[in-house]
């Protein structure tokens, strides 16, 4: 495949790009960063440009056979709509065979006032309507919450040193946790397998884990006691704002404010196994994922401080 990967400089798109490169597919991605600031993604060619510019997006898609799309941390409806239209038109014009859109989150059935949900719903709607009748197959993946969020400067030190797993979800919220690597496997399957064109799939782990169950899985993987502590969403938002800016942090945190309200208690839970069957993917159990991570880096005071 020759794959246009929208978002390859981010965590999720980057995981997809790395897996595609490992399997000897050719990858191109769009970036506004100068050469000196571009991350090293093996096997990836960079195209200078912006998702807001239709010509730039079309250039990215030239000669692509497939596309993998995840939107950046932008939650303005007009901007996201423009991005989605440019992507859809580029896919149509260049004859892409299949486009896989990762919504980056589950999306409630009914409309909400949460930008993180509604902009992703909008992008999905624009893509579906714009690609209808074009011959471009669309597959939509809706993941729950990423395990990699817990292997971070915000969570890693507390887990490694104190056995504290603090996260902005109520302790009784069931979540089908998934890793970036397993997301990439799901995207790869959605790009290649038969029978999924036109479908929207809630992907994730086969089993839902609430807070204490998640802590137990981490305890098995780490070989030490772990306790779950629900973090207030506003505290999470304040910390995230220091890393990604207040607008992006507010967008991301909107998901956790919604979950804390109790409006969608099962939104992030495991499905009935339909996505696993359709894609023939088996996400790793949480304890196995935990055991594979180099948690010792967070035990070092210098690493934790950085």
Brief descriptors of the model:
Rossmann fold; NmrA-like_oxidored; 9 strands; two-stranded parallel sheet; disordered C terminus; alpha/beta; 2 domains; UDP-galactose 4-epimerase, domain 1; 306 residues
Q: How would you concisely characterize the structure shown here?
A:
This is NmrA-like domain-containing protein. The chain has 306 residues and is of the alpha/beta class.
Fold and architecture overview:
- With 306 residues, the chain is of the alpha/beta class.
- The chain is globular, with a radius of gyration of 19 Å.
- The protein folds into two domains: 2-142, Rossmann fold; 147-176 and 206-269 and 284-305, Alpha-Beta Complex (UDP-galactose 4-epimerase, domain 1).
- The model is unreliable at 302-306 (pLDDT under 50).
- The relative contact order is 0.13.
- It has twelve helices and nine strands.
- This is NmrA-like domain-containing protein.
- InterPro entries: NAD(P)-bd_dom_sf (IPR036291), NmrA-like (IPR008030), NmrA-like_oxidored (IPR051164).
